[in-house]
């Protein structure tokens, strides 16, 4: 493994900056194990205290520039998910994504996953009721959620924040003030698609979250703005499909990047991007950590 690819994010050592984004590979450790062989870290699907069935199909559709999903934060519940994750092989660090409606519930969730390397707080899902964006659009609540969760665990806590708010920097600062070890930007944008022949929305939930290459410019701008104001690490997420996208996010200020929708096109994406990044660092003679935020300085 190339040393030039190694990054350290809030104390978590990663052999490369490529992370599996939450919500992509379901709730089975076997799927996470396969991807973790080449990923720098993996983030699980979001889990709450109680099982959630989610929305009925169709819950995911693809369009020309990405995906639109309204899965509804379906999960087996914390107790069952904790047992499932016992089968994770830890080829790379494991970050468990959590969703809840109160600070106390977020804190309680951390106690079910003492084996995790860190936690990601889902404060940004745009299509679930009373959780996700409903929590993450209130700066004071975001600050309190992070503060209470940090008090419950000694593991790094990352706040995943949304572009569907009035001011994403305000939310990022609230997370930082609450003691977050980093922020993840961004989650999906609100969107929908209508069947022009049936003359009705395609998703059963009517609207969902838009992901994929079409949202990358939005995500890069959010990372840029957050880097200008925050002192904690930023993880970029949204539309990464090539090694050039990874470099762009890092130049904007991201210490690592998450991949999600790209797996729809290739389950070898982590391997191919890793190899391309090795070639890039050999060509430039740089370590990836050294280019983080460089576009702000040139």
Care to give the gist of this entry?
This protein is α/β, with parallel strands linked by helices and 298 residues long.
Describe this entry's structure for a reader:
It is globular, with a radius of gyration of 18 Å. An 8-stranded parallel barrel has the order 3-4-7-8-9-10-15-16, surrounded by 7 helices. A 4-stranded antiparallel beta sheet has the order 5-6-14-11, with no helix packed on it. The protein has a two-stranded antiparallel ribbon with strand order 1-2. The protein has one domain (about 5-295): TIM Barrel (Alpha-Beta Barrel), CATH 3.20.20. It has helices spanning about 30-35, 80-85, 105-110, 135, 140-150, 170-175, 215-230, 245-250, 270-285, and strands at about 5-10, 10-15, 20, 40-45, 60-65, 65-70, 95-100, 120, 155-160, 180-185, 190, 195, 200, 210, 235, 255-260. The chain contains 9 helices and 16 strands. The chain has about 300 residues and is an alpha/beta fold.
Total strands: the figure is: 16
Q: How many domain regions?
A: 1
Strand content: 15-25%
CATH topology-level fold name: TIM Barrel
Count of DSSP-assigned helices: 9
Spell out the helices and strands N to C. EEEHEEEHEHEHHEHEEEEEHEHEH
Amino- and carboxy-terminal Cα gap: 30 Å
Helix fraction bin: 25-40%
Spatial order of the strands in the main sheet? Answer: 3-4-7-8-9-10-15-16
* Overall CATH class: Alpha Beta
Rg value = 18 Å
Instruction: Give a quick account of the main beta sheet: strands, pairing sense, barrel closure.
Output: 8 strands, parallel, barrel
Low-pLDDT windows of residues = none
């Amino acid at each position: 493994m190339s040393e030039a690819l190694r990054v350290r994010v809030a104390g978590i050592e990663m052999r490369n900056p490529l992370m599996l984004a939450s919500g992509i590979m379901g709730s089975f450790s076997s799927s996470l194990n396969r991807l973790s062989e080449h990923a720098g870290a993996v983030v699980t699907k979001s889990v709450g205290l109680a099982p959630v069935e989610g929305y009925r199909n169709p819950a995911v559709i693809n369009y020309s520039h990405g995906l639109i999903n309204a899965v509804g934060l379906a999960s087996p519940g914390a107790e069952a998910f904790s047992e499932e994750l016992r089968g994770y092989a830890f080829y790379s660090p494991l970050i468990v994504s959590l969703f809840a409606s109160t600070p106390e519930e977020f804190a309680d969730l951390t106690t079910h996953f003492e084996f995790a390397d860190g936690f990601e707080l889902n404060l940004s899902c745009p299509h679930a009721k009373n959780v996700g964006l409903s929590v993450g659009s209130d700066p004071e609540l975001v600050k309190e959620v992070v503060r209470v969760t940090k008090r419950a665990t000694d593991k790094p806590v990352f706040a995943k924040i949304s572009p569907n708010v009035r001011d994403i920097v305000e939310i990022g600062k609230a997370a930082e003030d609450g003691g977050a070890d980093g922020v993840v930007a961004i989650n999906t944008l609100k969107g929908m698609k209508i069947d022009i022949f049936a003359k009705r929305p395609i998703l059963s939930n009517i609207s969902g979250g838009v992901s994929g290459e079409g949202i990358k410019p939005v995500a890069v701008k959010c990372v840029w703005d957050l880097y200008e104001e925050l002192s904690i690490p930023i993880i970029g997420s949204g539309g990464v499909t090539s090694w050039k996208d990874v470099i762009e996010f890092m130049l904007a200020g991201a210490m690592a990047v998450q991949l999600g929708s790209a797996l729809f096109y290739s389950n070898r994406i982590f391997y191919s991007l890793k190899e391309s990044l090795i070639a890039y660092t050999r060509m430039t003679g740089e370590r990836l950590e050294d280019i983080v935020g460089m576009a702000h300085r040139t």
